[in-house]
């Protein structure tokens, strides 16, 4: 079975699955490990090879979430702008409205429905439904544009799992009725071998490691064929401060010693160094030049 | 009405991911348990607390002993809680699919179920303090919002749905009483449902509504939990520790959490900067060879000092906890926890003397 990595060829739906290149990368992991930084760094790296690379952010999956998250996506939008990365922000209301409009053949009707209290409550009570809408939108774009690459700065572990699961859950729930065809189609795209890659980010810290190990297991339980890539961020065993420096700094010496004791989870893990800078843009810029990213493709 | 007579002090540890909420909530609980009865609950679905303590989370309620202190522990278990409250009514299998979706972590009812789990427990046992380790960032706010969500959930528009369903199959919703059946259909709900049925198919919508009907049958539990939260947060017994670290670019999030919490008038809101640099780090910097690592170290120190100043103005007070080793899998953990407990004891002495 030849694995031809033809990155610029359009997706040939009828061809052998092994020729499919990964075009949708979902970055998740424990909160604080650097999902956003890694997603942005990879998106920047990928942009150098493929013009149509998009960094995707999602608005909260509930209509009434307080404003803590709206500033987050503005922050990411600014980073994308400065780093010349194409940014695609998905708004829940817009995605749902356009989907409902498509089913009912009327935008006006769709807008009315989405604005009703009942519908708002439905979304509030079933946030996984919103997750499905988002995923559906992305997979639809993936299918429609065979030359597009999407990098999703996904929610943290627990929520990411619910996010992924929504495809399978609703496929079962809508096993009869008008949504059956749609959910089946989504599931087929999502499970196309290697098309979607789950990028599990962690740091050399026990909680982060445990969380990724548990997540990998849970993803396997949902579907053993989903592709997973482990990513280790801030690995001080790569490019640590020099010995000369460490001999003058007990603080850093201790940290480096601790971290080099940790073994990576997986031999296929892609590791990235700790970039000594508090300026996020600088960190992303440096990380985006790391050649290890090529292993993702 | 809530059956809880005695109201404990409530302390929440909130903040973005990876800042140390779990470790700090544990050390605080331990410090308090030396002289008070303490319940530590984690409502973070990842249940990292189990790893810190090296225990299994299968039993949602446990009594533990750490460092000669003992306390009670609750692990969030929304599925068990939902089963428990539905135990009294018969639920058809087809409705269980949507119900289990609702009960899952990050499902629509998980925060409310967490509240119910806590309130059921507080009906059974009395505590001086309840310490809560929360889920990262925005998800915690969903917990606080749970109150409003419960109210909305059982409000007008759902009753209207029942009316329609009631008209179609009287027996399912007869528990609502004849009055409800008489309510007008002119609100457009029926029209909405017709269109919705076209999008999702009739079975999903009716399944969803029936599921909601089941929850409505046990609504007292939800209302009690909402009452509990209302009572606990409206008295001067609630404290929020908004935790953050310099390592992450998350200062803004800490401030936004504070802003969101401000609406709780009687709460004390403290900032906790965790994983701070060691004392006399500025001297250490002076001895470092020039280069990017030295500059980085200086930047971290500068940021730390600036945040402490800024937070002192925004919050009721700022507390700092030093960076400890990042592994919990050996004896180092006990030392780490002990170090934190000592800091809490100091804070208790200087700050919370009159609690």
What does the largest sheet of chain B look like?
8 strands, mixed
Uncertain spans of chain A: 1-17
Order of helices and strands of chain A: EHEHEHHHHEHHEHEHHEH
| Fraction of residues in H or I helices of chain B | 40-55%
DSSP E strands of chain B, number: 8
Structural class of chain B: alpha/beta
**Overall pLDDT of chain B:** 80
Rounded to an integer in angstroms, the radius of gyration calculated over CA atoms of chain B is 24 Å
Find the biggest chain interface.
A-B, 72 and 82 residues
Radius of gyration of chain A over all CA atoms, rounded:
20 Å
Q: How would you sum up the global shape of chain B?
A: globular
Strand order of the largest sheet of chain B: 3-4-2-5-1-6-7-8
Identify the strand order in the major beta sheet of chain A: 3-2-4-1-5-6-7
Question: Can you walk through the features of this model?
Answer:
The complex is a heterodimer of chains A (297) and B (355). Chain A contains 12 helices and 7 strands. Mean pLDDT of chain A is 86; it is low at 1-17. In chain A, strands 3-2-4-1-5-6-7 form a 7-stranded parallel sheet, with helices on both faces. Helices cover 50% and strands 12% of the residues of chain A. The longest helix of chain B is centred in the C-terminal third of the chain and has 23 residues, at 292-314. Chain B contains 15 helices and 8 strands. The radius of gyration of chain B is 24 Å and the shape is globular. Chain B has 355 residues and is an alpha/beta fold. Classes of the chains: A alpha/beta (297), B alpha/beta (355). Chains A and B meet through helix 2, helix 3, helix 5, helix 7 and helix 9 of A and helix 4, helix 6, helix 7, helix 9 and helix 10 of B.
